[in-house]
Amino acid sequence: MLEHVSWVQARQLFHSSTVALVPVGSTEQHGPHLPLGTDFLTAQALALAVARELKILCTPVIPVGVSEHHRQFWGTLWVSPETFRRFMREIAESVASHGVRRIVFVNGHGGNNAALQEICRELRAKEIFAVVWAWWLDPEVQKLTNELFRSRGTHAGAIETSLVLAIDPNLVDRGQLEAAARGASEIYATSRDGAQLPLDTIDFSQSGATLDPREASQEAGQKIFQRAKERLSALVRWLEQVSEEELKAKPHLP
Fold it and tell me: Which of 17, 97, 108, 188 would bridge 56 by S-S if both were Cys, CB 3.0 to 4.6 A apart?
């Protein structure tokens, strides 16, 4: 949205917005059936839908994130966590410089979560209240996907494939669904004896997908999109109404 207006129009948008949405994702493999831009396309679609409905500010999408664990698959791009943290923190600070100090990072990629959470704490110390929202982690969205699917893999599985079908069915290569399912893994990450192993996606998924994307449908994706949109809207409305005192970092105990 912001990229389509002039600075004069942006001034009005900043004056009328209490909350800014910053969509962020990745450019990384999503199996043979989904586009490399899946994560930023879904984040952008949700952020724009809410921004238009609530008439608030939405920045341009950030299309590259922390994705080195997909590097063996062609076309994947990534930056280091350090670079990503600094870049996203400075984007938030630039938004705040125009007067909007409540920010939602609408995140479409799980690999970005840790870095974004870290900078949210740093930003709060500067009286910028930022939060990370990821559609697949929302409890109400999870409840819905549990009802819709037997196969619940998020990364390039039935859930994410359905969401992409809802956004633009032309982005899904249906002829590759069989290949995606054949090489998919039963889980996204690998752990052993309580430890998270530093593995790349190719270590446990030959197609880059998880579980069975063949269960995906546009109808299911539309339901997921609507539920996610409602949940993001609810978060924004809370941020619009909550007091500044409640958002500020508390002082040191006496």
Answer: 17
